[in-house]
Design a protein that fits this description.
284 residues, alpha+beta, 11 strands, globular
Length: 284
């Protein structure tokens, strides 16, 4: 997990449009992006393949025509399920839409800019899809006055989202609490990654964070959709994959480095997660 600082090609036009294409792998549940969060609204629009998008504690299975809206400071990640995954990723900074002394700015843009409005995460809407495709097309071609055309599409997208898919609002106090809890989860993940080879208990992490075990466990689950121990297991398997392909360590050494004292149990767990033994995985 990490805070993702978005860099724009031109700070005067704070918008990123990234087309993604990923060939199908041999296995399901391959992580394609590390869990992250940021201050911008992110729009994911899927064109092909099947992908699971996890936003906080919810998982959405997405295919062609589906849209996922990631609100500011929502922890999220993607898992490839099947097919050649093709999708557009659009990062919108509300500053792009700001205008002084304008009623639309006061009524609609400011709440968007201040992260006060929350949109539904999963959407299937043909009109919205057309606007997203038109925006991406303008950004790719960059014809005369494309910036105006892009802003027009963003306003259309924001109109559709606000009219049809506004899930609620968030007060300043709620935003502060959410961000505080997000930082707790981030610190806990840092601790877990640093101690993968050791025995990790809920009490150890809670003590490290100076909070109660109950509060920590509930907060972690609400932001990630996983229990702490499910996350520990995922990180151990992810680390094992990396070591199996990028190091000369033996399987026993890798098992120990990932917190498994019994190589046989490591091999069984690895196969449960990947569909193959560690030795088979090295032959990919």
């Amino acid at each position: 997990m990490y805070y993702e600082k978005i860099i724009y090609e031109d700070p005067r036009f704070p918008l990123n449009v990234l087309p993604y294409y990923e060939s199908a792998g041999r296995h399901t549940r391959l992580i394609t992006r590390n869990p992250s969060y940021h201050e911008q609204v992110e729009i994911l629009y899927f064109l092909d393949g099947e992908t699971a998008v996890v936003v906080k504690d919810k998982t959405y299975n997405c295919k062609k025509g589906d849209t996922v809206i990631v609100n500011p400071h929502e922890l999220h990640t993607l898992y490839k399920i099947s097919g050649n995954v093709v999708y557009h990723c659009i990062m919108i900074d509300a500053v792009l839409l700001s205008a002084k002394n304008d009623i639309t700015n006061e009524k609609y843009i400011k709440p968007f800019e201040n992260h006060e409005i929350i949109f539904n995460n999963f959407i299937r809407d043909e009109e919205l899809g057309k606007c997203i495709n038109a925006l991406v097309d303008e950004m790719i071609k960059k014809e005369s006055c494309y910036e105006l055309a892009v802003k027009a599409q963003i306003y259309s997208i924001l109109t559709i989202l606000t009219r049809k898919y506004a899930a609620g609002s968030m007060t300043t106090k709620e935003k502060e609490k959410n961000l505080k809890n997000l930082h707790l989860v981030e610190k806990s993940m840092d601790y877990i990654r640093a101690n993968l080879k050791n025995r990790i208990t809920l009490g150890d992490i809670a003590k490290h964070l100076s909070i109660s075990e109950y509060y920590f466990a509930r907060t972690f689950k609400s932001h990630t959709g996983m229990t702490v121990f499910e996350y520990v297991e995922e990180m151990r398997i992810a680390t094992a994959k990396k070591l199996l392909t990028e190091s000369d360590m033996s399987i026993s050494e890798i098992a120990s480095a990932c917190g498994y004292n019994d190589p046989s149990y490591f091999s069984k767990t690895f196969k449960d997660h990947t569909g193959m033994t560690p030795k088979e995985y090295t032959r990919i």
